[in-house]
Amino acid sequence: MVKSFEQFELIEPLLKALTVLGYESPTDVQSLVIPAIKNNRDVIIKSKTGSGKTAAFAIPVLNKIIWDKKEPQVLVLTPTRELATQVRDDIFNIGRFLRIKVEAVHGKSSFDNQAKQLKQRTHVVVATPGRLIDHILSKTIDLTAITHLVIDEADEMLKMGFIDQVKEVLTHVPMNIQMILLSATMPQDIVELSNLHMVNPQLIVAKDSIETENKLLQYYYEVENKEKSDLISSVLIVENPNSAIIFCNTKQSVDEVYQILNRKSFSPIKLHGDMDQKDRLKVINDFKHGLYRYLVATDVAARGLDIDQVSLIINFDLPRNIDNYIHRIGRSARAGASGKAISFISNREYKYLDKITAQTNQKIEELKIPTELDVKQALEAFNNKQEKTKQIKMDKGFEFKQEIMKLHINAGKKTKMRPSDIVGAICNIKELTATDIGVITILDISTFVEILNNKGEIVYQALQKTPIKGRMRVVSKANKTEYEIAYEETTHTK
Fold first, then answer.
1. What CATH number belongs to 210-387?
2. Superfamily for the 5-206 domain
3. CATH code for 401-482?
4. Where in the sequence of the chain do the CATH 3.30.70.330 domains occur?
5. Which one, of 456, 461, 465, 469, lies nearest residue 420 by Cα?
6. End-to-end CA distance of the chain
7. How far does CA 55 lie from the centroid of its chain?
């Protein structure tokens, strides 16, 4: 087994980014996938959630990017907007020192703004199939230079009815591309898709290790539906998790559980498919960054979303199929951490529990319902944790801020600002070269530019008295996110 990323003979900027991001050694799936993609093989990855799948394909694909090309070279298809955003961020961070520009293209976001960004140099596009086809038909995206196509969560694409759109996209990319398909399961339609469009693909199955299985403990309570509402608060007090996701089968059930916990001052947040995209992303980010301990959700939150350090999963409603159960509990015990999954089972749900235990071949033990005494004894520790200041979790990209500064310039497309104008002004600063300039994003009235190699302050100070495109501009340090501000506040108060 490969012990370090250096053994893959990756280019130095990639290795540097992996070090900053805390990648110490390759996971099982990464050890198998990276060499296969580097050797130009088509690859099918059948792997559990939380195994490092995104990095497994992103690392070798970015290793092949030709920076000077203007048209996209890598296309990643995802079934949901949330997953597209997450994958975009992961690829951007891994390619940070390569100055890779990554665009997310999905619905519920401005088509015109996406089209404007796609006119600029873009190396990687992460897209949902429907919105991508809109851009193809509108001729606002050029796929002629695509060398790598990644189909992420292929079985979910099939389940959500997007497989015909995926097939349509395949007719618009070059024939001789390298294809990578990721799927937790391999339904017949996915097998047929791979047989038709992939050339002698290498199947890589990353099996759960015994160590990982043992780190996720699975239990259930036998409880009638009408008693679940009382049980949920007792379990949260007794278990006293740092964070928990409570899964329900329907939006109505989510609303009911949310109201129950809210009335009992648990301060939860909720997530389901009927919420606006903006609200859904806000909920995911708030929970991901530790602003809330309890998330009540339908399965929209279970598939593929990268939320680390969830110590407890509660199935308030037991899912009706094995795939949903696996993806739900896969939110816990990720990346070597330990976790626990607890299901509430009524008499009528035992048949689903039996199917789950039979197909997973894993033991799910019954627990005794917490007594009033159990809850009373646990209450002090629970209240102490509730009163403590929440520990804010930072994005993976936060580590880059020590040597990368993002600057904002108050000029954009409406004043005909071009990347070459920014590069020219910065390269005229003493000791600065083009290699110190990261991703440049030009909007209608604003421009953002990343300065690498710890030279951000030098550039910031110099641009206060240096004209850009013949005029002095207001140049400022890009605003911190609300999570960075909260992180600094909690850090300073400790």
1. 3.40.50.300
2. P-loop containing nucleotide triphosphate hydrolases (3.40.50.300)
3. 3.30.70.330
4. 401-482
5. 469
6. 42
7. 11
Residue ranges matching CATH 3.40.50.300 in the chain: 5-206, 210-387
Please choose, from the candidates 11, 50, 58, 12, the residue with its C-alpha nearest in 3D space to the C-alpha of residue 33.
58
Q: Report d(CA 204, CA 181) in Å as an integer.
A: 10
Express each pLDDT in 286-335 by its tens digit: 998 999 999 999 987 656 566 777 999 999 999 988 888 988 888 887 76
Match 């030098």 to its residue by tokens: 458
Over the chain, what HEC string results? CCCCHHHHCCCHHHHHHHHHCCCCCCCHHHHHHHHHHHCCCCEEEEECCCCCHHHHHHHHHHCCCCCCCCCCCEEEECCCHHHHHHHHHHHHHHCHHHCCCEEEECCCCCHHHHHHHHHCCCCEEEECHHHHHHHHHCCCCCCCCCCEEEECCHHHHHHCCCHHHHHHHHCCCCCCCEEEEECCCCCHHHHHHHHHHCCCCEEEEECCCHHHHHHEEEEEEECCHHHHHHHHHHHHHHHCCCCEEEECCCHHHHHHHHHHHHHCCCCCEEECCCCCHHHHHHHHHHHHCCCCCEEEECHHHCCCCCCCCECEEEECCCCCCHHHHHHHHCCECCCCCCEEEEEEECHHHHHHHHHHHHHHCCCCEECCCCCHHHHHHHHHHHHHHHHCCCCCCCCHHHHHHHCCEEEEECCCHHHCCCHHHHHHHHHCCCCCCHHHEEEEEECCCCEEEEECCCCHHHHHHHCCCCCECCECCCEEECCCCHHHHHHHHHHHCC
Of 125, 129, 128, 127, the residue nearest 166 (C-alpha):
129
Question: What does the pLDDT look like over 361-403, one tens digit per residue?
Answer: 888 999 999 999 999 999 999 999 998 877 888 877 788 887 8
Predicted local confidence at residue 299, as pLDDT: 87
Give pTM, 2 decimals: 0.85
CA distance 400 to 419: 22
| Residues near 233 by beta carbon (within 8 Å), at least 6 away in sequence | 260, 261, 264, 266
Q: What is the four-CA torsion angle of 416, 420, 422, 426, rounded to 10 degrees? A: -160
The residue whose two tokens read 């003493």 is: 430
Does the CA dihedral 127-130-133-138 come out positive or negative?
Answer: negative
What distance in Å separates the CA atoms of residue 376 and residue 372, rounded to the nearest whole number?
6
